[in-house]
Design a protein that fits this description.
single chain; 408 residues; alpha/beta; TIM Barrel; 2 domains; 9-stranded mixed sheet; 3-stranded antiparallel sheet; globular; metal-binding; heme; S-adenosyl-L-methionine; iron-sulfur
Length: 408
């Protein structure tokens, strides 16, 4: 530990020995955190070999009206859980939500406004695939209330896009960005690195082109071979860990030099353009999830619950309209033993961390519950010893998995 860290550690208020009574029983909340809504659209044109999301390749037309009826029933059954609460953001993800017709999107957003207390300036994001992006449709989405578009570009290299199983090519990606920029002002581009056969030069070429469009937000993240995917079964040759880490470091430097601030592990934004919806996740806010496979986290006065819906779209649609709760796959209460890890798993992803006050406010337990693990992380140089924030050091960010696991 450095002398600076040691001196600041000693300057922190002395922590009393743990009082077991403070850590027992149910959590207690004097206020509730911000609330977001996630809407899942499960269909896509083709399943990508790296994708482990709950997405399903289309074998015909999207059953839009059946889907919207089930979505309405799903939401209405959840409303008693969130009565009176404002919704700060909506994220429509997938799958490929941009496959929905303009009419279906309009019906969806009208239903949300009718049922929810949406903030007037709520962030409403839709994910879009460049291979399923039409100018007229995006303009209609915007007219219905969508004010942010997240485009899954991944790469501008046609060879890499083919390897990734994407349905678009580089020219379609460029056209989709131009279309989105004409429809809305808030745009995110997803860019992957450490792709099969990619070298540093190819990564830089991809990233520099993504930066050239001047969008407000970029997600720059490492390709991972997730379990239960085609790539897990037939793994391609990807850059080794050292090259992958060097790509991330180089990419971060280029982005920050270009005016994007890295505010989360994989997220870069211009001033004032952070994704409000995702930031609410990382700050351990609440979110309601509707649609097949959607997950949610909701806080009540004496507990935090997590919910998950049936994953299969057909099963979810059949069950949701019965209005008997059979569309819910799981409801569980987050235990006192889990809460510290869950909070830190999210909060430490943020470059500036979170205010210390968020821990008792959003877990329902005193910070004393996490103090021993925090002290150990500070001693290892992985967390900032300063008072007032829970924040990883640059070293802690470099070894974020190790830091997060120290709270298990």
């Amino acid at each position: 530990m450095s002398a600076r860290a040691d001196s600041q550690m000693k300057a922190r208020p002395k922590v009393r020995a743990r009082d077991p009574s403070m850590l027992s029983g149910r959590p207690q909340f004097s206020s509730l955190p911000p609330l977001s809504l996630y809407v899942h659209v499960p269909w896509c044109v083709r399943k990508c070999p790296y994708c482990d999301f709950n997405s399903h390749a289309l074998s015909g037309e999207i059953p839009e009206q059946q889907y919207l009826q089930a979505l309405s029933a799903d939401l209405e059954q959840a409303l008693p859980l969130i009565w009176g609460r404002q919704v700060i953001s909506v994220f429509i993800g997938g799958g490929t939500p941009s496959l929905l017709s303009a009419s279906a999107m309009d019906q969806l957003l009208a239903m949300l406004r009718a049922c929810l207390n949406l903030l007037p300036d709520a962030e409403i994001t839709i994910e879009a695939n460049p291979g399923a992006t039409e100018a007229g449709r995006l303009r209609d989405y915007a007219a219905s209330g969508v004010n942010r578009v997240s485009l899954g570009i991944q790469s501008f290299d046609d060879r890499a896009l083919k390897t990734l199983g994407r349905i678009h090519d580089a020219d379609q990606a460029r056209k989709a960005i131009a279309i989105a920029q004409q429809a809305v002002s808030r745009i995110n581009l997803d860019i992957m690195f450490a792709l099969p056969g990619q070298d540093m030069h190819a990564m830089e070429r991809d990233l520099r082109e993504a930066m050239s469009f001047g969008t407000e937000h970029l997600s720059f993240y490492h390709l991972t071979l997730e379990p239960n995917t085609v790539f897990a079964k037939y793994p391609p040759k990807i850059p080794d860990d050292d090259l992958g880490a060097a790509m991330q470091e180089r990419g971060a430097l280029l982005l920050e030099q270009g005016g994007w601030r890295r505010y989360e592990v994989s997220a870069y934004a211009r001033d004032g353009a952070e994704c409000r919806h995702n930031r609410n996740y990382w700050e351990f806010g609440d979110y309601l999830g509707i649609g097949p496979g959607a997950h949610g986290k909701l806080t009540f006065h004496d507990r935090i619950e997590r919910h998950a819906k049936l994953r299969n779209p057909d099963s979810w649609m059949r069950s949701a309209v019965l209005r008997d709760g059979s569309h819910i796959a799981e409801t569980r209460q987050v235990s006192a033993e889990e809460i510290t890890f869950e909070f830190m798993l999210n909060a430490l992803r943020l470059r500036e961390g979170v205010p210390t006050s968020y821990y008792p406010e959003r877990t329902g337990y005193p910070l004393l519950q996490a103090e021993q693990a925090i002290r150990k992380a500070v001693a290892r140089g992985l967390m900032d010893p300063g008072v007032g924030r829970l924040q990883a050091t640059p070293l802690g960010w470099q070894f974020l998995n190790d830091l997060q696991e120290s709270f298990l």
